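Lecture 7, part 2: worked example. A protein chain together with adenosine monophosphate.
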Amino acid sequence: MTSPRYFPHHYLVRFLLLIFALQALTACGEKDKTYHAQLVSLGTLIDISIWNIKKDKADTVIHEIENRLNAVHQKWHAWNPGRLVEINKHLANGETVNLTTVEYEHLVLARDLAIASDHLFNPAIGKLITLWGFHSDDPPAPPPPAVREIRKLVAEAPNMQQLHFDALSLSSSNSEIELDLGGFAKGYAVDQAISILKNHGINNAIINAGGDLRAIGTHGNRPWRIGIRHPDGQGVIASITTNGDESVFTSGNYERYYDYQGERFHHIIDPRTGFPAKGTRSVTVIHSDGATADAAATALFVAGPDQWQKIARQMHISRVMLIDEHMNIHMTPEMAERIHFEQNIEKEIIITPVES
Ligand code: AMP
Ligand code: MG
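Predicted complex, written out as structure tokens:
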């Protein structure tokens, strides 16, 4: 088991509390035949639940998952030395990089999700993320960067469409591109873990990466039931019962941030302004695969209360809950059908279909 690289202890404690809260939601009634395991990877706590499995088999599968997650984490880490850092160096030097098929597929997936999101999910803005201090093992700290520096990087306008793939060769027309795949890294990794489970014939399980998860099958004769964290950190705001094979991902302004002169500076950057996206506190997305759900949660967070419907439609996302800065809750009807609030909601709940 690896130790977290850039995951402060208090985050771990918060995740542990959340996960216990989530388990409390699922555990009730009949004798629970769920096998639980926890490991630290991807800079977070991973909670694995498998329904009705023998311990020997579970141990083997969990070992395989741990190895895969650690390999993915190391390879695609945004600043620790690894393959992504190497690729970024080549692109900055205007050089062509030869990719493996797996690397090609990962980057093409990131590009396609970015295009569908009108580049609000933009993994090419690594330089901005660095400028804001989020490429560090230490917690981000004030003051915010100089506006002049931010504007300079926004003017370089890096985006995923400037990546050119010629078979497995990658080059870029913009040497200011720095890839940071953190906006969908957990989703991608959780998908890998689920495919390992499926390859072992396991069809009833949850891979929960610090509150973001993919669930398959059921919990005995009941669906899996999972919790959504309140954006204030006050426990669980709502629960969702998953249906078949589904991912539930949340992006929030409470994950990595600092407060400075009464303003919150968090880790989700609006590529249009270069500043942390305004207007949203959290976005939760339900979708079949984790990578799309994760990228969409980030993109819809940036899109905010006025534009999320358009981006959700383009990304083929029908289940969305967006909590805005005033704590009003915006949802699609498809999400409203699935969500159960665990706390009194004092503000408005606004239900809009993505088609409108
Ligand atoms: P998430 O928690 O999934 O919303 O991802 C946030 C992480 O994605 C940040 O820590 C950055 O590494 C990266 N990121 C920030 N803003 C963006 C953006 N607009 N598009 C893509 N990735 C981003
Ligand atoms: Mg995301």
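Residues 149 and 256 are 21 Å apart (CA to CA). The chain has a mean pLDDT of 92. Keep this in mind for problem set question 3.
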